[in-house]
């Protein structure tokens, strides 16, 4: 039979804190949603035996999970809404056909130019500024 190794394994020192950490995050999420402050929750975690760094990580995870409850709007949400608005304003399926999209923009530009000339007075004169009538 083989003898058990006399040197301890480095894995003997590993502590599985997944379940307690998950429970702490759930508790901190409930506390933050109830209106308690970040520092207060962190201090209570430290008082409960968590290291300060671990408590800060737990509060950060809970902070991220309670954004919607606290009414926080993130940069990602703003960018997503902006991109969605931009894509919807680009003309739908025309974007897939560059020549069709270019033709559409050209027609729109010409129609805008014609509308400006009509609103300008309809004198039919060339471009350039007009002198005000005295």
Map the helices and strands.
Elements: H1 18-33, H2 38-47, H3 52-65, H4 67-70, H5 75-89, H6 98-120
Helix pairs in contact: 1-2, 1-3, 2-3
How would you sum up this structure, described in words?
This protein has about 130 residues and is mostly helical. Among the domains are: about 15-70; about 95-120. About 60% of the residues lie in helices and about 0% in strands. It has six helices and no strands. It has helices spanning about 20-35, 40-45, 50-65, 65-70, 75-90, 100-120. Helix 1 (about 20-35) packs across helix 3 (about 50-65). The chain is elongated and about 90 Å long. The model has no long low-confidence stretch (mean pLDDT about 80).
List keywords for this structure.
134 residues, mainly alpha, elongated
Question: Can you give me a brief rundown of this structure?
Answer:
The protein is mostly helical. Helices cover 61% and strands 0% of the residues.
Give me the secondary-structure category. mainly alpha
What is the ordering of alpha helices and beta strands?
HHHHHH
Number of helices: 6
Average pLDDT value? 81
Portion in beta strands:
under 5%
Distance between the termini: 116 Å
Largest sheet: none
- Number of β-strand runs: 0
Approximate helicity band: 55-70%
Outline: elongated
Low-confidence stretches: none
Based on CA atoms alone, the radius of gyration comes out at 32 Å
